[in-house]
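Hi R.,

As promised, here are both runs. First protein below:
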Amino acid sequence: MNKKGVSQIIVVALMVVLTISLGFLVFKWMSGTVREGGQKGGDRAIAQDNCREEVKIRVNSAEKQGDFHIINVENLKQKLLSDFIIRYERGGELEVKKARQVLGRYENTNIKVSSPSFVPSVVKVIPQIILEKPELKSMDKGWWLCSQQMATYTL
């Protein structure tokens, strides 16, 4: 029997097995990456639906008291709101602050936020929501700003 021919067949067989194994690993990795991206896109769509259907706020008042503004925000729907982004504006000037305040269903509260370096003419409040599993697919917990639900108050 020709030993040289047998060893070449073994080498070719090992190369085929190696190629198939590498291809399988690359395919598995790529399919996991695509699935994860799809789940994140699904979470984003769920958050946008929540913002559109379950979040609505109103700014009832905004008053300057010393170095702070006291902004009265009312939650007009059932979604629990966790934080707020406050935008102070005047002409081309803009200053953004973050306010940590939990606001329950159909409640209103006063949010104390440091005043900007200028006298604002408009205060805009953007609510933030928290979503958790089982609503989310790609993570245990996520925070989203509901920028379409921004409430405006003119000073």
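And here is the second one, sequence first, then its structure tokens:
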Amino acid sequence: MYAADSSPFQLDGRRALITGGGRGIGRACALALAQAGAEVVVTSRTAAQLEKVVDAVETLGGSALAIPIDLATDDGAVSLNETLTSHWPGGADILVNNAAISPHVEAVENLQDDVWSEIFRVNLEGTVRVTRAVGAAMLANKSGAVVNITSIGSVRALPRIAAYNASKGAIAALTKTMAIEWAQR
């Protein structure tokens, strides 16, 4: 982490939404963005983790809001966007799609359909839902940045996590498509 006055980039006045922001990469993104001056909103299904991130951001002198939510449903993404637009009427400037799960470590032949579906519902469909909802304001504002977190598993096969690898590969393809479609807008 950089000291506030030596950050290689400044995001004063910017608003950043980080999904899966309660721990790990999402937490690190929230802290780095806050340290660079952005106001952050973090989401996760676990409220207690989010509150710790909010406390850490505030300790850095930043501003943060926690929104505990399940992004695996259409209602979750809609609710998130409603809460977000009431908090930030102009929408987010930065979206970091980090929310993901990989609850089962199974060989492909043992992978159950419901497990496959759950991983895709959270990892890929959650990313699509949030991006559609939050991205609409970015497109209207003709400004914004979307960062989709994938995995080495999206380009290099890792054993016993086929559904996770495939979901992250799909996000990588989605990201490339969005870059082409949204760059002109």
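A quick note on the second one: The CA atoms of residues 84 and 175 lie 22 Å apart. Let me know what you think.

Best,
J.
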